[in-house]
Write the structure tokens for this entry.
Amino acid sequence: MALILTITAIALIALGAARDFEKNQLLILAGLVLGAISLPMHFVAQSTPILAITSVAVSAGIGFILGAAILAARKQPASSFVGIAVLCFFAAFVFRAPMFLTNRFGSETEAETATVGSILVELGPDDSIDEIADLLAEFDATAERAFPTVSLESDEDLGQTYLLTGIRRDLLRRLLDLLRERLDDVDFAEANEEVGLMPPALTYEALSPTPGEYAANDPMIDRQWAVPAVGIDKAHRLLADATPIRKAVVAILDTGVDAVHEDIAGVYLSGSPAGRDAHGHGTHCAGIAGAATNNGKGIASLNWDGRFVNIASYQALGETGFGSIETISQAIIDATLDGADVISMSFGEFTPLTPRTVSQAAEFALERDVILVAAAGNSNQDAALHMPSNLPGVISVAAVDQQGRKATFSNSNASLTRPIAAPGVNILSLEQGSRYGLKSGTSMATPLVAGLLGVMRSLKPDVTAEEAWNILHDTGTSGADAARIGRTIQADEALLRVVSRPIPLEFAFDGTH
Amino acid sequence: MKGTVVYQNIEGGFWGIRGDDNVEYLPVNGLPREVRHDGMRITFEAEPASGMSLMMWGKPVNVRRVEEIRN
């Protein structure tokens, strides 16, 4: 605002300075008043006097350039305005112009990152985060356990340490002071400053093969950042020469699946009970799990040539996206009885008491060697109470973004028994009516893991749920947030653990190697 | 209760309420079109609801009454 006012002020003065303009004195006066108003605004808007002076200089420089243009257009001498503009820009350069421009015109994300901060707070061994809820509310801060893998029993300091996020930077010091005054509740509080030499230079986008270098011919593969990020392209090269022992079934428990979508119809299990989708969520999940790949249509999944996985669907959720204990339990039981290898559940709820029926349905499936996969949830909290991802034996999936970091919305699942992470931001998949679209959520990360597990089962049908998770964990990559969300899957590395390959001759003699 | 309407651009997008009590509420019966404005301040009455959802966000509630707070 200050910048615009200053530019306008100088432009008005320039208009007034044009001799053929009748109301020149009034314009000059208006320009001076606006200039006087805008000057202190620069000092309010900028955090230091140097930045404020720089801001004034840049604004004035732009204003004088504009003024020179106005004078030139009216065939008036403009050289004095140009000269002053040059002086202003020179002054701005001297007063740290590069820093000013970066702050002022940088990306919105950078600006947002720069204006919020976080605090690490350690509570007393008998204290609860609820005891400082009033402060969290006052400062719009959210809290989650900083080290969810450390229990209070194993370490009463780390186990009671919370990460407070979303705090305005200008209020950070104030909140720190207030926390430190709460001697009854808080043992320790410190700003969560980032420590490091440089931001990571390599992002997932940088891994993308150039167009045309992918193994698969699906035309939208260039828009699927997860393909190079988690080794899907490398997995394609592996699967192209592999033969499944049998085709596995991945059951999508969701809002249904558009069974006639051009990119799923060829792999949709005939007779599956929920072949329509009034919402679209289930269809999106199904495409991620097993869209026919290398078929010259749409997107790519891990289902190379459609030879490894069939997709089945069960109506766990209604068209508004909600499901009852009964519909969800029934869907788990039905999929199990129909012979599903993997059940993908992109839904959930925070609840202190797990519904007995859902728990029993999950046990029913696990006892029959079905691999259960569930989304960790989207509340940016610890998923310890998020059901069904917190059920024993269920693989819980958190979401990562293009930088390999925990997605801002994703719950942390490291406190659960089988945590894993997968891409879940801006994921391209199927929409009803043979269309395609982007969605974000732990719902999108979950079927990618389910699809990978399905392909693993097709190559090694006797792989158990526990073995499968161990493979995902052992072959996964440890990103910056792995302590909170587990390792991120690497599809090619995981498949190498289950694919049957001929033993090379040099290792086939007498076992002395 | 008072709160702010928020649009969540996840899971295909949906509307929620961030209560002044710092609790996020997920209306299982949706929000009326008139209050579907990100950042709108509202008063609302709601009852706890149960059920799992694909949104996986907020505390499920049945919203009984909702009204914009006008300054």
User: Anything to note?
Assistant: The interface with chain B takes residues 133, 136-137, 254-255, 279-281, 284, 317, 320-325, 328, 346-350, 375, 377-379, 386-388, 409, 411, 439-443 of chain A (CB under 8 Å). The mean pLDDT of chain A is 84. DSSP finds 17 helices and 15 strands in chain A. The CA atoms of residues 204 and 229 of chain A lie 5 Å apart.
